[in-house]
Design a protein that fits this description.
Elements lengths: L9 H8 L4 E4 L11 H20 L6 E7 L8 E3 L3 E3 L6 H5 L15 E2 L13 H20 L3 E6 L1 E3 L12 H10 L13 E2 L1 E3 H13 L7 E4 L5 E2 H12 L10 E2 L12 H5 L8 H12 L9 H10 L4 E2 L5
Parallel strand pairs: 1-2, 2-6, 6-10, 7-9
Antiparallel strand pairs: 3-4, 3-5, 8-11, 12-13
Helix pairs in contact: 1-2, 2-4, 5-7, 7-9
Length: about 325
């Protein structure tokens, strides 16, 4: 049964939960949209309402798997030549305005080398979306311990694949690059393009959810899900451009988004020990995504207008060359 609704609508949630034994809670308002209250209402309060309904109605839910995100980390883990494994915090905005995008050791301020981020890294995302994803994760795991229902929070790396929205200009870098190129517009890359991400194909994410639902090895835990492979955003743009046969060099104006993570690769030791392995490479996933997007007819470009809004709201800023 398919039921279209809103996480803020209690009646919809009650209907969706009727007779359900395993809940895969994937709903969230995402990306870099400028709304603040909507993030909190959908992600934080919506999750709280879902948990209240299960408890108050004494529903026979035997497990909840909630979609968390790598954005709960303020920055990826780093290796300092002097201090070893460190967990850098948010990069200061004054540093970014100078065009210095490096990630520095929190002890000695030396530049660090990016390394996979384990689940025990400090938490505290620095965007409204990140704050509410951490809310979702903590609410579900804490509630599960209190009521005795097994729960798992899966911290997804950047997820992509067929049916990813081509209309949302605020989230999904692969989808955004595709819609730009298909309109003969160059991709727009923030910072210097050397920031790295870990990408997961949607089918691998589905397999991780099925594992979490059918195994007790991850119960009560927050768990990274990713490929364990770091890829620069500049390289992602190159792969998509080559696959489409549209050789447009990306635009890089030194723009940056305060609070954005510079490097994040998931340490997937925990989920791999439970039996998970990513099966679809970034290259194969892009090929499959492009095969799907080519079936969608005429593709509009929404990013340019959205970027202007982000700049007006201060969510997108530019390096100050006179500093």
């Amino acid at each position: 049964m398919f039921l279209q609704g809103d996480m803020r609508d209690r009646g919809v949630l009650e209907s969706a939960l009727d007779g359900v034994q395993v809940v895969f809670h994937q709903a969230a308002y995402g990306g870099y949209m400028p709304e603040i209250s909507k993030y909190v209402a959908v992600n934080s309060l919506g999750t709280a309402q879902l948990l209240e309904i299960i408890r108050e109605k004494n529903l026979r839910v035997r497990k909840i798997v909630v979609a968390s995100s790598q954005v709960v980390y303020p920055e990826g883990a780093g290796e300092c030549a002097q201090h070893g494994l460190v967990f850098p915090g948010l990069r200061p905005i004054d540093q970014l305005r100078r065009g210095d995008f490096s990630v520095r050791c929190p002890v000695c301020q030396s530049p660090t080398k990016s390394v996979p981020t384990p689940e025990f890294a400090p938490l505290g995302g620095e965007t409204v979306y990140a704050i509410t994803k951490l809310d979702q994760e903590k609410l579900v795991l804490t509630w599960g311990r209190q009521v005795g229902v097994p729960t798992v929070a899966l911290r997804y790396s950047c997820t992509f694949g067929p049916r990813q929205s081509i209309f949302n200009p605020y989230t999904g870098v692969i989808a955004i690059f595709c819609t730009r190129l298909l309109n003969n517009l160059p991709p727009v890359i923030y910072e210097d393009g050397e920031q790295t991400r870990d990408f997961s194909f949607v089918e691998d994410i589905a397999r991780a959810n099925l594992l979490a639902a059918t195994s007790d090895k991850l119960d009560g835990k927050a768990v990274n899900v990713g490929s364990g492979r770091a890829v620069t955003i500049k390289r992602v743009a190159e792969l998509i451009s080559a696959a489409l046969g549209i050789p447009l060099a990306p635009i890089m104006n030194g723009d940056f988004r305060p609070g954005e993570i510079r490097h994040l690769t998931s340490d997937t030791t925990l989920i791999r020990n439970a039996g998970y392995a990513a099966a679809v490479s970034l290259e194969e996933g892009i090929t499959r995504y492009l095969a799907w997007i080519k079936t969608q007819g005429s593709i509009r470009e929404y990013f340019a207008a959205a970027e202007s809004i982000l700049r007006q709201k201060g969510i997108l800023q530019r390096v100050e060359t006179n500093l």
